[in-house]
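Hi W., the NAP complex you wanted:
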Amino acid sequence: MSSVKAVLSTGFQSEGELVKVGSVPYPKINDDQILIKAKSFAVNPTDWKHLTFAEADYIVGSDVSGVVEEVGSKVEGFTKGDVVSSFIRGNVSSAKGAFTEYVIAEQNSTIKYANGSKFSNEGLKPGSYPTSLIDTYEGASSVTLGLCTVALSFVNLGIKFGDESNSTKSILIWSGSTATGVLAIQVAKLVFGLKVITTASPKNHDFLKSLGADAVFDYHDTDVSKQIRDFAGDSIAYALDTISSEYSFQHVYDSTANSSHVAIDNLLGLQPLQIKTDENRKVSYSTTLAYLIWGQDIDLMGTIFKSSTQLVENYNDLFVKILPSYISKLKHSNLRVLNPGLESASEALELLRQNKVSGEKVVFSLN
Ligand SMILES: NC(=O)c1ccc[n+]([C@@H]2O[C@H](COP(=O)([O-])OP(=O)(O)OC[C@H]3O[C@@H](n4cnc5c(N)ncnc54)[C@H](OP(=O)(O)O)[C@@H]3O)[C@@H](O)[C@H]2O)c1
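Structure:
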């Protein structure tokens, strides 16, 4: 096979299609990488955001599931035939991206499924599917970018695995029905034993409680921060703002005002200078960028985000050593399955871009 089909950027110039289906050379892995024969794909906001300024012919996509086709000579823990899902840095080059028939993947952003041999080779029919344990290629494709993000965020927040005091502490997850929030709720509860307080539109409250959230508040309520303060008292030690607008960041800050110290993480490079703060409060701030898990600094629109050996080590300690034993207990989000075929990437990306997705992940299979 000399070439494979792939979803490619068009070099979008403010109108027209974001993507097209084309072909790229059959990919070659290096000694540290894994080649995945793709089965299913999921879209993420980062995909459409990058596509609004990407050059033409970059391979699109960040989330894939499938079967290991080839393993680099230095890779440990994966063999040909394993069922896996992986988070890929797509949308920025003609060499790597998730939405293609054969995908180059890195070890520390790839999950192996012990129950993978039971995944059906028949893709799910187009339609809506409720949250469930991860037992399909579609479900597997929907979780990896999110889990890598949550793992790095919890490292940045300084949450300690196995700390007995976790059961007395709460984490506030702002907007728990986001793809990130759905996974953060479960990891906070199942892996770290924290109490989970979250926000969402009312129609998603029962869904988030079913994932382990102890309390869910409606972020549309004008007094939502007061409601959270009254409920949580001084228990909130950590907060993750999955929306990361100035509005949500301010609300996270205000909701945690009773805490003697709180660590607040956001996902879009927000700084405390962008909100109203009280100099008497003890707050630590961090920003998570999942692309840093591979050890390279990242330039995003002129802002440099720094990685480090220590950051990657701390992330690997959680994602590579601890999380795998919890994968069989984690649920994927509700799924919206589109028609099979790479052609569905365009519809999937537009659904996200037009903010038409609530409490679900949009996925499509290869065929
Ligand atoms: N830095 C990183 O590494 C990283 C990684 C992953 C994601 N992100 C970023 O994080 C953000 C979330 O991504 P995602 O994929 O997790 O989200 P998503 O699944 O696309 O988010 C959809 C959810 O957003 C909620 N929502 C929409 N507008 C809102 C608002 N004004 N206030 C509160 N909630 C609102 C909706 O909740 P309801 O339906 O309940 O109202 C909906 O369920 C994006 O900006 C993404 O680019 C960054």
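DSSP finds nine helices and 21 strands in the chain.

W.
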